[in-house]
Write a structure and sequence with these properties.
The complex is a heterodimer. Chain A contains five helices and 23 strands. By secondary structure, chain A is an alpha+beta fold. By secondary structure, chain B is an alpha+beta fold. In chain B, a hairpin with a 3-residue loop joins strand 3 and strand 4 (58-63). The longest helix of chain B has 16 residues, at 28-43. Classes of the chains: A alpha+beta, B alpha+beta.
């Protein structure tokens, strides 16, 4: 059977579908992509359902090869360095990965997460209704763990797209990472007005110790008006809890289903990915929006994903060394004509 | 005003989740209202309601705002909350075998020391009570249980103890719990049940719901082993009892 073979994988590279929904009431984390919009866009470009299983690539990077036949892929990893047999490719690209060739994805200067979708179906068995990997509870993906060298990802119902690499054009993924929109609450009444203003203005520095569970923020600590312990209640994705030390923690895809710190605000769904893509050291602030504004942003996202993702043939804009070595000098500088 | 007459507070947790808050404390009367609303919404869920997460004092509703308008959901919740103050569904009681002996009841001696009870009295007191599943949280299948007798209300540890095995029966901070997944914990491990409240490969993966009642039935270590072997074959060792509320 056709399969993607993992030649190498850094920590934090996992399989993710749209998430394990319906079991929060039993303490089961939804998991799913850190950047849902980018995950859905990669699936859209590959012609799959938006919540299909894809490879989520961390800054640890991944090296992949095809087995048993060519595999069409859509790879979107803005800021990452992507190379096919050593030749650089755009960071959003569709291509056919043929057996014997090697696709390398490495972290660049920016971007924390990328997504690789296949034209077909990554055929791993769902666990509790989903293939989303949650490593803390060992659920989903391959044996509930991250991908590692030697893993094979069977590809069912493989369809081949264009063989030559095409650049994917998804301008909605060019998101300003500096301002994250939030809806206040559910426990904003645990903070005085000046503390809410201080929270929104920041600036906050994203700590490097974040992971799929939480994004830690450094800055001037906030003070609580009514203590920092609450009787546990539910936790939404993007909930911003403020523990005793006053430094906000944004709860991400692998968060627990309930929690006992006051949550000053919640990142709106369309901005989860914008925050998730911020690497350690990035500076951010928050902007308060209404529920209605957040819903309008969601609707705009849905509309964008209802259209096919545009593509154009890759035209070399940067000359890789192998390309330069292959050129023949046809004349001296003096022969140059305009 | 008594709790049952108060309107719940509706708090937004972003644009896709609504917290219906009935109170701010751990209280069986508040839990009743949470679970009654959970039942009522579960019996006739509006389209677009994705998940209901009951906790001690609130019901979190995850919804798709492109399908279900917040105002429509809020109105539905307010209407249902007026009538739903007691659970209408049948109450389910589970009896779970529990071995309090070595090697399972690792921390019974410590609890005895902290409470001034004898180890036998710790076990008899824990096994003599009826618990209610208030909520799940923290980890898959981790069930928070109310109903722990006051004499066993030891505070949680200042720092976590080493990991316990799966399906540990634990107490701490005035609550009891069944901890389905091995992990370090600030709770005291006083026993283990061979019943697997959570089994990811089983369908359904869970059988005990929030609001269900639980009693623990003491068994010795040999019986624990025999029951664990039965459970491993897929034959459930928890027993279920039904009564009308």
């Amino acid at each position: 059977m056709t399969a993607l073979r993992v030649e190498a994988a850094g920590p934090g590279v996992t399989l993710q579908d749209g998430g394990r929904h319906g079991y929060l009431r039993y303490g089961i984390t939804a998991a799913g992509p850190m950047d849902p919009l980018m995950h859905a866009t990669a699936n859209r470009a590959a012609g799959n359902p938006l919540d299909a299983t894809a490879v989520e690539i961390s800054t640890g990077g991944v090296t992949l090869a095809a087995e048993g036949g060519a595999i069409g892929i859509a790879l979107i990893a803005p800021g990452f360095r992507i190379a096919l047999d050593g030749a650089a490719l755009p960071d959003a690209v569709a291509l056919a990965l043929e057996p014997g060739r090697t696709l390398v994805v490495r972290a660049g200067e920016t971007g924390a997460w990328g997504y690789l979708a296949v034209n077909g179906r990554i055929a791993v068995a769902p666990v509790i209704g989903s293939t989303a990997t949650h490593t803390r509870s060992g659920l989903g993906g391959l044996d509930g763990r991250g991908l590692a060298a030697g893993d094979r990802l069977p590809v069912a119902e493989a369809r081949l797209g264009a063989v030559a690499p095409h650049r994917l054009i998804a301008p909605w993924l060019d998101r300003d990472p500096r301002v994250i929109r939030v809806v206040l609450g559910p426990q904003d009444d645990y903070f005085a007005a000046d503390q809410i203003a201080a929270f929104l203005a920041g600036p906050w520095t994203v700590s490097p110790r974040g992971d799929r569970m939480a994004c830690f923020l450094d800055g001037t600590p906030l003070t609580h008006a009514r203590g920092h312990d609450i009787v546990s209640d539910g936790v939404a994705m993007g909930a911003i809890q403020v523990p005793g030390n006053g430094l906000p923690i944004v709860l991400m895809a692998d968060r627990q289903s309930t929690g006992g710190y006051p949550k000053i605000a919640t990142v709106i769904g369309p901005d989860f990915g914008r925050l998730a893509q911020a690497r350690g050291g990035a500076r951010i602030a928050f902007r308060q929006v209404s529920v209605a504004e957040a819903v309008a942003a969601r609707r705009a996202e849905r509309d964008v994903l209802s259209e096919p993702v545009a593509r154009e043939p890759v035209v070399r804009t940067e000359f890789a060394s192998d390309f330069l070595l292959g050129l023949n000098l046809v004349g001296g500088v003096a022969d140059g004509r305009v | 005003m008594i709790a049952s007459a108060d309107e719940p507070r509706l708090l937004d947790a972003g644009e896709a989740a609504l917290v219906v808050e009935f109170g701010s404390t751990v209280d069986p009367a508040i839990s009743d209202r949470v679970l009654a609303l959970d039942d009522a919404l579960g019996a006739d869920p509006p389209e677009g309601l994705r998940e209901r997460v009951p906790t001690y004092r609130s019901l979190m509703l995850h919804y798709d705002p492109l399908v279900l308008d917040r105002a429509v959901l809020a109105e539905r919740v307010r209407t249902l909350a007026k009538g739903a103050t007691r659970r209408a569904a049948a109450t389910t009681l589970w009896t779970l075998p529990c071995c309090y002996d070595a090697p399972h009841g690792e921390d019974v001696a410590q609890v005895a020391e902290r409470t001034g009870l004898s180890p036998d009295a710790v076990v008899a007191t824990h096994a003599g009570a009826t618990y209610r599943v208030y909520m799940y949280g923290f980890a898959p299948g981790f069930a928070y249980l109310g109903g722990l007798p006051e004499v066993l209300a030891v505070p949680r540890r200042a720092s976590p103890r080493p990991p316990h095995p799966a399906n540990a029966v634990v107490i701490g901070g005035g609550l009891a719990a069944v901890a389905t997944v091995p992990m370090p914990t600030g709770w005291y491990v006083i026993g283990a049940t061979p019943a697997r409240l959570y089994a990811p490969e089983r369908d359904p993966s869970f059988f005990v719901g929030a609001g269900d009642l639980i009693r623990f039935e003491p068994v010795d270590a040999a019986t624990f082993d025999a029951l664990s072997a039965r459970e491993a074959t897929g034959e459930p060792v928890a027993r279920r009892w039904e009564s009308r509320a």
